[in-house]
Amino acid sequence: MSKKSIAKLVSLALTICILIILSLFTSSNNEDYALLKNKTIETSEEVSFIEEEVSSVYSIKPQNIFSPDLGKSFTGFKEQLGFKESQNNYFRVNTLGYLGKYQFGRSTLELIGINDVNHFLNTPELQEKAFIANAERNKWVLRRDIKRFVGKNINGIVITESGILAAAHLAGPGGVKKYLRSFGFNGFEDAYGTSIRSYMKSFQGYDTSKIIPNKKAKVSMKA
Question: Do 37 and 126 fall into the same domain?
């Protein structure tokens, strides 16, 4: 075989080797790209899922926070009173031992059938029932005073049923009777300086028609 033929064979062999190497390199790159692409898709899906989860968490609205959107509804009355008493904290106990969202005293709780204050403090639904029962009882005690004084002006405040019921929650129905029947002369302030007059003003004009007067209003301990 001549030198020229040998040279051609060597050149051909080198060309074949180079083509094989290039083919393998391209295939490897394609596979790596495919893997990378799949991982990118998976990562995008994971990020999307996380964003959805975060979005769903932020979309949860806190409950039992007073909102002016509630207006003068009964829910607005109840939630604003809870906010005034405890900032709507079901688990608050103040320095005088008053309990829960609506800051009930132990003696008031006993009147409406609640003796286990620990259970009461740790059961929001029971606290809401207690608020209704206490308001029903107060409305019954004050029914004549509501009829007599609503619409009258005492100490610069127009008297409304919701103002009377809020004041009764603060000072008890007996304290409200004394205030109304003395035309504001016999006032009341709690230990923190909150007065019947201030509650009469802050809680004017809410719809409390859902509260039905009930002399024997009680709460079931099963909340």
Answer: no
Q: What is the dihedral of CA 167, 171, 172, 178, to 10 degrees?
A: -90
Q: How far is CA 12 from the centre of its chain?
A: 81
Asked whether the beta carbons of 220 and 133 are under 8 A apart, the reply is no
Is residue 166 within 8 A of residue 188, CB to CB? The reply is no
Q: Give the pTM.
A: 0.69
Nearest to 204 by CA among 177, 164, 175: 164
Cβ contacts of 104 within 8 Å, gap of 6 or more: 98, 120, 127, 130, 134
Whether 111 and 105 have beta carbons less than 8 Å apart is answered as no
Number of domains in the chain: 2
In a shared domain, residues 164 and 121? yes
**What are the distances in angstroms from CA 166 to CA 55, 85, 97, 159?**
39, 11, 20, 11
The pLDDT tens digits for 21-70 are 555 545 444 444 444 344 443 444 444 433 444 333 333 333 444 455 78
